[in-house]
Design brief:
This protein is α/β, with parallel strands linked by helices and 293 residues long. It has 2 domains: 120 residues, Rossmann fold, CATH 3.40.50; 135 residues, Tumour Suppressor Smad4. Helix content is 18%, strand content 39%. The strands form 3 sheets. Strands 3-2-1-4-5-6 form a 6-stranded parallel beta sheet. Strands 8-7-18-15-10-11 form a 6-stranded antiparallel beta sheet, covered by helices on one side. Helix 1 packs parallel to helix 5. The radius of gyration is 20 Å and the shape is globular. The N and C termini lie far apart (48 Å).
Length: 293
Amino acid sequence: MKIAIYSRTGSEAAIPFLENLITEIENAGGSFMIYHPFYNFLRQKSVRLPEDTVAFSTNEEIRDKVDFLFTLGGDGTLLETLTIVKDSGIPVLGINTGRLGFLASVAGEKLKEAVDAIFNERYSIDERSLIRLETNRDLFGDTNYALNEITIHKKDSSSMIIIQAYLNGEYLNSYWADGLIIATPTGSTGYSLSCGGPIIAPQSENFVITPIAPHNLNVRPIVVSDKYVISLKVAGRSQYFLASLDSRSVTIDSSIELAARKEEFGMNIVRLDEENFLGTLRNKLKWGLDVRN
């Protein structure tokens, strides 16, 4: 079994977890590859790696060549791997070396248990839906999709913007706000949740449309079917705005035509047998616990 390992360049906190992960993979009889920028960072830090360590940079270098991709970091680190795995179907397992971790749900100190579970097939694969952004200009190249959300946001400290939203061509609303989030079920526990959006179960086949700091307080998030095409028109006093796919952002203006729809393929997230979505919610959000001091 071959495993690709991804982490952010400069992530010194990931180094001891990487060293333990390599040991566990080799003890289990597997092999590994390391993301090239992170590999170079490790060499700069004089981290001892096996002489035959192979580095990778692109989807083509791991497509049909690895069985899993492990990430070392938090949810943001896992989200970045979408542009690497693309539509290859490579399952991704997140090792959490950060804080909250809804997606990167395996605690770093449980590396051995995680590797044992993978090599002994004690896991499930959750296919998470993606959202695609279609525009009249090439903004994000061939990776114009996101796992968590599409966000339209005002740029810098400019005044609020106006976003007109349509569902399958039918007018929904004009949002006077700092921005608008269109989140997948996976993204419903991210930025959308922090802006008052509801939590959606992973397989619910919906999008959540959540305004960011709306001017009209009676405007609330709405859940719609992911079979809708959501069209957007943006205007405001400022000439420029931000369009984001997860953590990737570009500057746009009001001449850009925007439409969001469900992507034809999904992203495979590994879930160990003792994990489930409801348990993650209870543990991460501390549901049912009296946390008063």
